[in-house]
Design goal:
alpha/beta, Rossmann fold, globular
């Protein structure tokens, strides 16, 4: 992605000069600013792919002020936050950026190596491929409805493994859209459209039914794999959901424990009584329940205590940063302890390297999911992956 434009704002001239020369060697067009005010004076940024490396600690306008002004002026772009502050402040700045709906690619604690700087750029290029859709490629509600009804959607499955043995115990079903014009579209780009347009009900029904078909096929091949499916806030306010799912499971002759429904922590903040009603009835019918993205929402311990979850899924933002971030590691450790105290299995999502997996093992985490284990794959690849995978030296 050599047409990528890189902006760097830092009040240390030596840092600016070093990063400018490095990005020049990498072949990127780069603009540096020792003052954030100079960046905003230039007016609207170009329409090309762009990323900003932003130092938090600057005298005339600090990084927090820069983020606020980016939102006010519409000069938003993906950010890499840099700081010599402690990791707690860096993490708080990251959460503020997300609250502003600014995309955070990475955080870099100073001093950092040029290799980490390069990795942040490479991470952006991967992110851009997944999310990079311009306004001309806008996805319409009618297109999505057509896709649901005409088999343009396909499920991919990401394996979840037992950290102690390395054996596969389940998969998370992720729905992708094979768009005739835009190619394969990540679920993050159309799930919100489904939620806002009232299509989330039929989309969820499609995903669950397809996942059950697949679980039944794996069962016929003597492979018992639990399937996790994400459901939205709208789904958990549908009083008919427990009966609908029980009928589907009976129709497919599947044990209800083979299905896990993942509910995001933030989705529980709506109609709590209705959610508790539905979730309790789902558990009474034998369906497993997972609280997803734990640590990013605002649920209280009393709410977590009342809800009948069987699994706690730690948000990947903490897991991915825990190797180099003591605060993230502390949050992960606390989540594991909390989950176990409440008699839940604990899943760590976003495991991208062996070191992270080893830390999770030492902390007593139960289940791991992430690119280090396996990327999401089509249904037909699951059985070969299980058969060919060597777990004899797992974590040894």
């Amino acid at each position: 992605m050599k047409n990528l434009e890189i902006f760097i704002i830092d009040d240390e001239q030596l840092t600016l000069d070093m990063l400018f020369e490095f990005t020049k060697l990498l072949g990127y067009e780069t603009k540096t600013y020792i003052s954030a005010k100079d960046f905003f004076k230039q007016g609207k940024v170009s329409e090309s792919e762009a990323i900003m490396f932003l130092d938090l600690n600057m005298p005339d306008m600090d990084g927090i002020e820069v983020m606020r002004k980016m939102v006010e002026t519409g000069q938003k772009m993906p950010l890499v936050l840099m700081s010599g502050y402690d990791s707690g402040i860096l993490h708080s700045a990251e959460q503020l950026a997300k609250a502003y709906s600014l995309d955070i690619i990475a955080t870099l604690a100073k001093p950092f190596s040029l290799n980490l700087f390069k990795e942040a750029i490479e991470k952006y290029t991967r992110y851009s491929k997944l999310k990079g859709r311009d306004s001309k490629q806008f996805i319409s509600v009618s297109e999505l409805e057509f896709a649901i009804n005409n088999k343009q959607l396909e499920l991919y499955y990401q394996p979840q493994i037992d950290i102690r043995s390395g054996a596969i115990i389940g998969v998370e079903a992720l729905v992708y859209w094979q768009h005739p014009r835009l190619g394969l579209i990540n679920p993050g780009l159309f799930i919100s459209i489904a939620e806002n347009s009232g299509l989330i009900g039929i989309l969820t029904s499609f995903v669950i039914e397809q996942a059950m078909h697949q679980a039944l096929f794996w069962k016929s091949k003597k492979l018992m794999i639990q399937v996790s499916v994400n459901i939205s806030a709208e789904n958990i306010t549908s009083l008919s959901l427990p009966e609908q799912l029980k009928d589907l499971l009976d129709g497919h002759q599947l044990d209800p424990t083979m299905l896990t429904l993942e509910v995001t922590e933030s989705s529980l903040m709506g109609e709590l009584i209705t959610s508790l009603d539905i979730l309790t009835r789902l558990r009474m019918k034998g369906i497993e329940l997972s609280i997803d993205d734990f640590g990013t929402g605002y649920s209280s311990l009393s709410q977590l205590y009342r809800m009948p979850f069987t699994e706690l899924k730690i948000d990947k933002s903490f897991v991915m940063n825990m190797k180099n971030d003591e605060d993230a590691r502390g949050i992960v450790k606390t989540c594991i302890m909390l989950g176990h105290e409440l008699k839940m299995n604990v899943v760590a999502e976003g495991v991208e390297n062996r070191e992270t997996l080893k830390i999770l093992s030492d902390m007593g985490c139960d289940i791991a999911q992430g690119y280090y284990i396996a990327r999401p794959m089509s249904a037909e690849k699951i059985i070969p992956w299980v058969v060919d995978r060597d777990t004899s030296s797992f974590l040894n």
